[in-house]
C-alpha cells in the first residue's frame, strides 16, 4: 500500500514542481522598492508610480551617450507624460551635485532628477555601473526592458504606444 501511494504521489509532485518552475520563469522582475530624493527636494517612491509606465534612467554629466540622448528623452517625456509616462533621471555617485544642478537647469529637464550620492539606488537596480542605463517598467511595476547604452527611441515609442494605448 505504501509503495502504491509513493508511486501515485511522485507524478503529482513532479507536475507541481514543474508548474512552480514555469511560473517562476514567466514572472517578470519587479521594480525595487525605492524612494527617490530629487535635487529639488521632492520624494518619489516607485510604489507611488504604479499605474504609470516608468523609465529609470541612470546618467552622468560626463557621459557622452547620456548627453547625446537627453534631447530625445526630453521630447519623449513631453509627448508621453500626459499619457502616463514618468521618467526618473538618476545621476551617478561619481557626479558632482553642482554639475547635475547646472545641467538640469540649463537644459530645462522636465522630469525628476535625483542624485545617487551614496550609490544606494544603483545597488538596488543591480549595481549599475555603465551609463546610460535605462530600466522600463509597465503600469504593474514589471520590468519590460533594461537597456545598457543609448536608447533606441523608435523602438521606445512603439513600446510606449503599446503600453500607454497612445
Automatic annotation (TrEMBL):
Among InterPro entries, the record links this protein to: AhpC/TSA, Thioredoxin-like_sf, Thioredoxin_domain, Thioredoxin_ResA/DsbE_sf
One annotated GO molecular function is: antioxidant activity
Residues covered by the Thioredoxin domain: 25-165
Give the PANTHER family listed for this entry: CHROMOSOME UNDETERMINED SCAFFOLD_47, WHOLE GENOME SHOTGUN SEQUENCE (PTHR42852:SF18), THIOL:DISULFIDE INTERCHANGE PROTEIN DSBE (PTHR42852)
Q: What is this protein called?
A: Redoxin domain protein
Amino acid at each position: 500500500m505504501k509503495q502504491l501511494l509513493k508511486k501515485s504521489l511522485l507524478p503529482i509532485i513532479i507536475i507541481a514542481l514543474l508548474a512552480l518552475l514555469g511560473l517562476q520563469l514567466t514572472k517578470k522582475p519587479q521594480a525595487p522598492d525605492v524612494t527617490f530624493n530629487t535635487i529639488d527636494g521632492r520624494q518619489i517612491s516607485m510604489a507611488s508610480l504604479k499605474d504609470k509606465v516608468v523609465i529609470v534612467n541612470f546618467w552622468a554629466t560626463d557621459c557622452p551617450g547620456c548627453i547625446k540622448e537627453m534631447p530625445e528623452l526630453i521630447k519623449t517625456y513631453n509627448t508621453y507624460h500626459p499619457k502616463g509616462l514618468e521618467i526618473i533621471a538618476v545621476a551617478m555617485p561619481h557626479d558632482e551635485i553642482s554639475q547635475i544642478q547646472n545641467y538640469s537647469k540649463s537644459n530645462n529637464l522636465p522630469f525628476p532628477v535625483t542624485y545617487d550620492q551614496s550609490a544606494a539606488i544603483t545597488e538596488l537596480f543591480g549595481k549599475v555601473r555603465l551609463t546610460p542605463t535605462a530600466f522600463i517598467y509597465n503600469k504593474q511595476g514589471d520590468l519590460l526592458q533594461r537597456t545598457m547604452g543609448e536608447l533606441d527611441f523608435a523602438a521606445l515609442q512603439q513600446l510606449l504606444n503599446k503600453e500607454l494605448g497612445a
